[in-house]
C-alpha cells in the first residue's frame, strides 16, 4: 500500500519538510504532485524521528504548503541502463535530452553505486593512451586510476578534455571495447554546445555517453550528475566488459552546489563554508574508479577542477589530492607563452605510473626517458631562477645549455596541436631527441646501455636545426 501525504510543513530553498512520516528511508525517492497536476521528483536527505527533509530536484517554485501531495516510492534513485546509452545525451539527473526517446532499460541501478569490498579490487596495470606527449610520457594514465586535472579560470581545460575524449584509446590487441562517459556540471550553453559539436565532428559520439548539467539548472541536479555518470560507467565496465574513461568537469561547480545545499539544510560549515563531510563525499565519487576481480572491464576517472585564484590549498583541490593518485596541473605561464596543452610538468605526477609502463605495456625505455626528462627540466627551472638574478649572459655554459633545452622541451614536447595525436613510440622518440641535445655526461638518470642505444646528438642537432648553436656543439664534444 502506498500512502500519500497532503501538505508540507516547511519550504526552504530546494528543501521541503514533511512531518508524521512512517517507515521512511534515507535517500528514498518521493513523488511530489502539484495542485495543477504536474509532478516533481525528490529524495529524502534527512530524517529526525517522523520528520523528513526532502530535496526537490526541479526546485520548489510554485509549491504550496497546503495542496501539495507527496508519495514515498520505496526505493533510492535509480537510473535505467542498457548498452544503447552509448551515443546518447542526458541531463544531470539521467533523463535523455537528445530527442531520441527514453532508454529501453535492461536493468535499473542505484546511482549511489554498490559497496565494494577492498579485497576484491585489482591493482591497476596497463595504460590508456591519450595521444598527448606530456601526459603519456611523464604522468601516464593507468587503467583503473583516478587522475585529476588541476586547472584555473581561463585555462584551456575544456579543450584538453575534448582532445582526450577524441584521442584516448586502450593499447592492447584483445579487441576490448573502449568508451567515454563525459559529465559536465554547471557549464554554460555555449560550452555544452562546444562539447557536443566537438564530439560529433570528431566522429567519436558513438562511444561517448554525455551528461550535461547547465549553470541555470537546479543545483540538486548538479549533485546527481557525477553519480549518474559513474553508474553508467560501472554498468558498461562490469557488465559489458568495456574499458570506460569517466571525465567529470567541473568538480568545483559540484562542490559549490554541495556547499549551497548544505547551507540550506542549516549544517555547520567547515573550511571556506564547505560542509565538513566534503572529503567523504568526494571520496564516494573518486573511489568508484578501479578494476574488480573477475571483471574484464575497468573504470578510470579524470576529474577536472578549477582552482579559485589558482590556489592549490583551496579545499577542493586539497582534498582531491589526498584521495586521488596524482594530478595533472595546468600552468598559466605556459598558456601565456602560447603553449598548448599547458601541462605543468614539475607539479604533476601519476603515482601508479611505474606499474603500468615499460616492457609489455609501453616500451622498455619509458621509465628511463621519463625520469631523465623530469630531472633535466628541474635543472632548467634552477637555471632560469639564477638567470633572473644575475642575467642570462652571466650563466655558465652548462646552465645556458639547460636554458636552450628548456625552450626546445616546451616548444616541441609539451606544445602540440589540438588535433595532433602522437603514439607512445613517437612521444618517447621525441623525448630522446630532446635529451640528445644535452651532453651525454649530463644524462645521469639513464643506464649506459640504454643511453648508447638511444642517444644521438647529431640527429638531434639536425632535427631541431641547432647547427649555429656553438655552445651546444662545444659542450656536446666535451660530453663525448
TrEMBL record:
Keywords: ATP synthesis, Hydrogen ion transport, Ion transport, Transport
Single biological process term from Gene Ontology: vacuolar acidification
Segments forming domain ATP synthase A/B type C-terminal: 355-455
Residue intervals passing through the bilayer: none
Function (record text): Produces ATP from ADP in the presence of a proton gradient across the membrane. The V-type beta chain is a regulatory subunit.
Ranges where the ATPase F1/V1/A1 complex alpha/beta subunit nucleotide-binding domain occurs: 131-350
A Gene Ontology molecular function term of the record: ATP binding
Family: Belongs to the ATPase alpha/beta chains family.
Record flagged with keyword Ion transport: yes
Organism domain of life: Bacteria
Gene field: atpB
Record's protein name: V-type ATP synthase beta chain
Domain ATPase F1/V1/A1 complex alpha/beta subunit N-terminal, first and last residues per copy: 9-64
Pfam families cross-referenced by the UniProt entry: ATP-synt_ab (PF00006), ATP-synt_ab_N (PF02874), ATP-synt_VA_C (PF22919)
Source organism per UniProt: Dielma fastidiosa
